[in-house]
Amino acid sequence: MMRYLLLCLLLGCARAPAPAPAPAPAPAPAPASAVARPLLALAATCEHKMPADECTVCHPEKSAEFKARGDWCDEHVVPESHCLLCHPELKFFVLPPLPEGADMVMVSRMGEDVPSLEPFVVPGKVTVFDFYAYWCGPCKEVDAFMHGVMKDRPDIAYRKLNIFQWDSPLAKRYMTNVQSMPYLVVYGPDGKKKGEVKGIDVDALARLLE
Ligand SMILES: [Zn+2]
Ligand SMILES: [Zn+2]
What we know:
Low-confidence stretches: 1-35
Helix content: 10-25%
Strand order of the largest sheet: 3-5-4-6-7
Number of strands: 7
Mean pLDDT: 84
Bound molecules: zinc ion
Shape: globular
Largest sheet: 5 strands, mixed
Number of helices: 5
Radius of gyration: 17 Å
């Protein structure tokens, strides 16, 4: 946890939302950098400073959902992804919806090991592996960016891997040299690795998608 917080301070996770998108309807597939960035809206918060719709204090019946997916801070009795005591830098965003028909698959849901990414690379598409965690604020910015990009890019396969914790089997295999999330690995349509992005760098990601 301290490691994450320290990195956030160094890397400035709490970046301001991207500027308003330019009106630029482009023929598909447009270069990712030309795709209008979705504007990240901050979620409305309740008196507990939680997203109003998801606050487990206002809506205790929602606790079970979070617990069922392992998203829970026992110490502070709120979802880990909402715990401002553990993650004071958290911001709550409203994500743009995943476009209909988007090619998104959860490869690891709770930090289970995935011995190799290769079997999940989709030939003929740009495959984006996204290592994230529920409690990672910058990861949500990348989610929002990808949801926006995929609207015009049916040739993108988005593969999500929830590391869950820094010491999960998945994190131990892939994250030993990665100091900050999200961690993205991009493969080209030829099935070869194009590059990777560590931390929040949407511009670097956009270049890899072109
Ligand atoms: Zn509340
Ligand atoms: Zn906590």
